[in-house]
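User: Structure with nicotinamide-adenine-dinucleotide, tokens only please.
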Amino acid sequence: MTGGAGFIGANFVHQTLATRPDAEITVLDALTYAGNEESLASVRDRIEFVHGNIADAPLVDDLVQKSDLVVHFAAESHNDNSLSDPWPFVQTNVIGTYTLLQAVREHDVRYHHISTDEVYGDLELDDPERFTEATPYNPSSPYSSTKASSDLIVRAWTRSFGVKATISNCSNNYGPYQHVEKFIPRQITNVLDGVRPKLYGAGLNVRDWIHVDDHNSAVWAIIDGGELGQTYLIGADGEANNRTVVESVLEICGKGKTDFDFVTDRPGHDMRYAIDSSRLRTELGWEPRYRDFRAGLEATVQWYRDNEAWWRPQKDATEQAYAKAGERTL
Ligand code: NAD
Ligand code: DAU
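Assistant:
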């Protein structure tokens, strides 16, 4: 697998070792600013960890030929960073995915591609429709455009070269080991530091939250039972607007519900994502385990309280990057 030192990849390693103890896992990860070996410390002797880049073709070729399944999580994943500097997104998300596809094609290895609902663009707040597998691609940001590009590479390699691939497009994840640049951990760690949470614009943008363990159980359902060449949307009916999420974090932490600031909005900020995961549920029988977002959020707050040593080294640099990008209180 790729990207196992990142948020979702590290949780995938932990879940896989817990549910499939005989699995032999090789993690290929470049340990960018977003990768953290500490996330794998407790299972380090049960996996092979390779520090390397997914765009390194000879390395990838060597690892792929020794594997019977490649699950591709590695990416540049943060929209705000893609607005400051899009190049690493093209390099990793497009060239890196191309490199993996060439290797799985060469060695005829089963491939699962992790992608995002952002490839579909955004919805109006009152749109009765949600994204489905048939929704046309319409990405808004450099991040989502490079993820859309990578999905299209997978589809083309599947059709033209017979690569044995499936794709999943998931909504916003939350849970342990998420970098503090992302919305929920940023606000939790701000509150723990006595700093007011930051809401972009009017705070009305809606995201469709899913616990990372539910994302990963769905990935395994697709690997085990999904039809080759097909795409599956992963979501847990978790729509909430950003203001509601910040209010919940403040309440959980014992602060006043209005103790937050509105800050400069993200350029091109997608308004709403919403996933219809009927196909995954009806064809593969998958169901989410975390149905109570508030309970999942409480557990996540507790994880950040208990694991300050994990997130503290990232915090100052992250906040400095937001300040440097021009974020200011409205
Ligand atoms: P993350 O930023 O936390 O982790 C990315 C990992 O990839 C890091 O460990 C990093 O070191 C590694 N990496 C980056 N560039 C690399 C390269 N060139 N070679 C090797 N390793 C490299 O990301 P995440 O939030 O865990 O997202 C994982 C995947 O899931 C991504 O493909 C993302 O697009 C997708 N996704 C994320 C979400 C979400 O809410 N976070 C939702 C849907 C889909
Ligand atoms: O939908 C799936 C996507 O979800 C993934 O593909 C991405 O990798 C992942 O980063 C996430 O993208 P978002 O841009 O939706 O996530 P982010 O955590 O950056 O922001 C969530 C919402 O919160 C979004 O509307 C922007 C807003 N926001 C974010 C930050 C960091 C704030 O209001 N304040 C903040 O400080």
